[in-house]
Structure prediction request, 269 residues.
Amino acid sequence: MEEIIKLMKKRVATLKRAVEKAKRDTTAFPDGHLRISISKTKKRYYLMTNVGDTRGKYIKVKDRAIVPKLAQKDYRQKFLSDAATELARLEQTIELFSKSNADLSYQKLSDHRQTLITPYLITSKLYAQTWQSQTIKPCTYIPENLVYETKRGEKVRSKSEAIIADILYDLQIPYFYEKSLLLKNGMVRYPDFTILHTRKRTEFYLEHFGLLDNENYLAANLHKLDEYRESGIYLGRNLLFTYETKESPLDIKGIRKMLQAIFLLDNEA
Prediction:
């Protein structure tokens, strides 16, 4: 329900911007309305000015400049009317759902009482909390390389990975570092980050390529991407990557913007 309310609020904001745009339309609209008659061979345009007149006055070719203005005028009036109706209904529904919906049956309980029950509806917040509470088996590959500490208190293998982890933490995006992933070929891989898309309730994987200008490193990671693809994990869908080279340092602002767009702003259709 939280997501529905959020989407309705987003729609309200979009409509209000559009209404303001329509109200600021300073076009000098002509009197009357447009009627269009369409036959197999041509379209004919008529100017409707008199109440009760169902036919109107035929608009000659030399006067056709008035046609789009009449069409825009009719659309503007219809849009403003429909938008006002929709806004009233949306705002009424938002107020109603904000006060009473089935999700609140659980959310309004005390923390202690929540621990005693199993809710029938799993909210996005509760789903994320449950997902994050998993106990994962840590990657045992060269543990002595885990020397960089994140804000969350875990150890990662590089300064750049620590920066990415801290961005996720600051944005309150649920993630695991080096969570095991069983591929279709039977191999177990440990993506740098496994990230939860809370609204979609799906996992995304993020790999950081820190030595792209090293040919052996690049070849190994391209092979890893091939393995991911064979397991239905695709770049641009549920697989992300960040990178850096000697000449191209980590784009911290760009990564933050990317993660916000995918995991936070993506909730606002």
Observations:
- The longest strand covers residues 202-209.
